[in-house]
Specification:
single chain, Beta-Lactamase, Heat Shock Protein 90, 3 domains, rod-shaped, disordered N terminus, histidine kinase, transferase, PAS-like_dom_sf
Length: about 425
C-alpha cells in the first residue's frame, strides 16, 4: 500500500485484519491527511488502490460540510476518545464521481511513534436508509390510511347511528300505528258489544212498556165507550209511566253514544246550589212512586258554584231516579249538599233494597245490574254514564250500601272547573 503504509503497519497479522475488514477504514493524521485506507474504503469512495493516500479528509465530504469538519477534527485531536460521529444526524459522504451516499462513522485513535492517528470506521448505509425511508413512507402511508379509515369509520358510524335513529323512529311510528289500530279494533269491539247489548236490552226492556201501552190503549177505547172515566185515567197513567220508561232507556243510550264519541262538552255557568236542588226536587216529584218524597238539606257557606248545570242535573236525576226505583212506596229520599275545601259534596241516600256486597265492585261497569234488581226496569248504563259525567266535571263519586237497608251515593264537584282537554 505504498511506503507510508509499509512503515505504519509492520505486524503481518494486523495487516491482514486491516485489509480484510468489511468496513471501510481510513487513518488520518492531525493535519487531516489520509495516511492509509483499506480496500473497502477505496471501493466505497470509488478510488483505486492507494489513490486515497495523501488526500485531505475533507475531500471525501460534500462541500457544505467541509468547514465544519475542520473544526470538528481540531476538537477531536485535542481530546481524542472513541465515539460515534454525528450522533442523531444523517451523515453523507462524497464519492469520487461526485455522488453522495449515506454513511455511519465511528471514530477511534492510535499513536504510532508518538504521532496521533485518527481511525475512521465507515459503513455505507444506503440499503438501510432505503429500508428506513421505505418504512417511514409506509408509516406515513399507514398514518394517512389510518386517518382516512378513522374518517370512514366515523362517517359510517354516523350513517349507522342515523339509520338506527331512523329505524327507532320507524319502530315508534309503527308501534303508534299498531296502538291506534288496536284502539280502533277495541273501540269497534266495544261498539259491536254496545249494539249487541242494545238489541238484547231493547228487545227485553221495550217489550213490557210497549205491551202496556198497547193494552191500555185498547182498554181505554172500551172504557171510553162505556163512559168509565176512572178506569180511563188509570190506564192513561200506565201509558205515561211506560212512555217515561222508554224515554229513560233511549236517553241512556243517547247519552252513552255522545260520551263514547266525545261529543259532550262542558259549558260552565254560575249555579246557586239551593235553588238548583229545589228545581230538581220539583221536577222529580212527578216520577216518584206513591208516597215517596224528597227530603232536601242544603247548608252551604258558598252561595254559588261554577259548573255545567246540564251535566250536574243529569247526574242528580239519575241518582234520584235509581233511589226511587229501588225503594218501596212511602219511602223518603234524602238529598244534602255541603261545603268542602274548594268543592261541594252532594249526597243522595235512599231506604231501598241496597246493593249486595259481591256486586258493589261492578256498579260503574257498562250494562251491569245488581243481582237483586229483579223486575225493576233498567239498562245497566245509568251509573256508568254518571261516572263519566263526573269525570268530565273533574269530580269524584263513591257509595256505601247495606243489603235491604239502603244506599248512599256521594258526589264531590269542584266549586270551579275548567274543561278537560280533548
Amino acid at each position: 500500500m505504498g511506503t507510508p503504509q509499509t512503515g505504519l503497519i509492520t505486524n503481518e497479522a494486523f495487516r491482514e485484519i486491516f485489509q480484510s475488514m468489511s468496513e471501510g477504514i481510513i487513518m488520518v493524521d492531525t493535519r487531516g491527511k489520509i495516511v492509509v485506507a483499506n480496500p473497502v474504503a477505496e471501493q466505497l469512495f470509488g478510488y483505486a488502490t492507494d489513490e486515497l493516500t495523501g488526500l485531505a479528509m475533507e475531500e471525501l465530504l460534500p462541500a457544505r460540510y467541509r468547514s465544519g469538519h475542520v473544526n470538528f477534527r481540531s476538537a477531536f485531536n485535542s481530546n481524542p476518545f472513541p465515539r460515534r460521529m454525528g450522533a442523531g444526524r444523517d451523515l453523507t459522504a462524497l464519492r469520487r464521481d461526485g455522488s453522495e451516499f449515506p454513511v455511519e462513522i465511528s471514530l477511534s485513535f492510535t499513536k504510532v511513534k508518538s504521532e496521533l492517528l485518527v481511525m475512521a470506521f465507515i459503513s455505507d448505509i444506503s440499503m438501510r436508509k432505503k429500508t428506513e425511508d421505505a418504512l417511514k413512507r409506509s408509516e406515513e402511508q399507514l398514518i394517512v390510511y389510518a386517518v382516512e379509515l378513522e374518517k370512514k369509520v366515523e362517517m359510517r358510524t354516523e350513517a349507522l347511528n342515523n339509520s338506527i335513529l331512523k329505524l327507532e323512529e320507524e319502530v315508534i311510528e309503527r308501534k303508534k300505528a299498531e296502538e291506534e289500530v288496536r284502539k280502533s279494533l277495541e273501540k269497534e269491539r266495544e261498539l259491536n258489544e254496545l249494539k249487541t247489548k242494545f238489541v238484547s236490552i231493547a228487545s227485553h226492556e221495550f217489550r213490557t212498556p210497549l205491551s202496556t201501552v198497547l193494552s191500555s190503549a185498547s182498554l181505554i177505547d172500551q172504557y171510553n165507550t162505556r163512559g168509565e172515566s176512572d178506569k180511563i185515567n188509570k190506564h192513561v197513567q200506565r201509558i205515561k209511566s211506560s212512555v217515561n220508561q222508554l224515554t229513560g232507556i233511549l236517553n241512556d243510550f243517547l247519552s252513552l253514544g255522545k260520551l263514547e264519541e266525545g261529543k259532550v262538552d262542558v259549558v260552565n255557568e254560575t249555579i246557586h246550589p239551593r235553588e238548583f236542588l229545589d228545581e230538581i226536587k220539583e221536577e222529580m216529584n212527578g216520577v216518584l212512586k206513591e208516597g215517596q218524597q224528597i227530603v232536601l238539606d242544603c247548608t252551604m257557606e258558598a252561595s254559588e258554584i261554577v259548573c255545567d248545570a246540564r251535566i250536574l242535573r243529569n247526574i242528580l236525576f239519575n241518582l234520584i231516579t235509581n233511589a226511587s226505583k229501588y225503594s218501596d212506596v212511602n219511602k223518603s229520599i234524602y238529598i244534602t249538599c255541603r261545603d268542602q275545601k274548594r268543592s261541594v259534596l252532594f249526597e243522595v241516600q235512599d231506604e231501598g233494597i241496597g246493593i249486595p256486597e259481591e256486586d258493589q265492585k261492578h256498579m260503574f261497569e257498562r250494562f251491569f245490574r245488581a243481582s237483586n234488581s229483579g223486575n225493576v226496569q233498567g239498562t245497566g248504563l245509568g251509573l256508568n254514564i254518571v261516572k263519566r259525567y263526573i269525570d268530565l266535571l273533574q269530580g269524584t263519586i263513591s257509595f256505601s250500601s247495606e243489603y235491604n237497608k239502603g244506599t248512599l251515593f256521594k258526589v264531590t264537584i269542584p266549586t270551579s272547573t275548567n274543561p278537560l282537554p280533548k
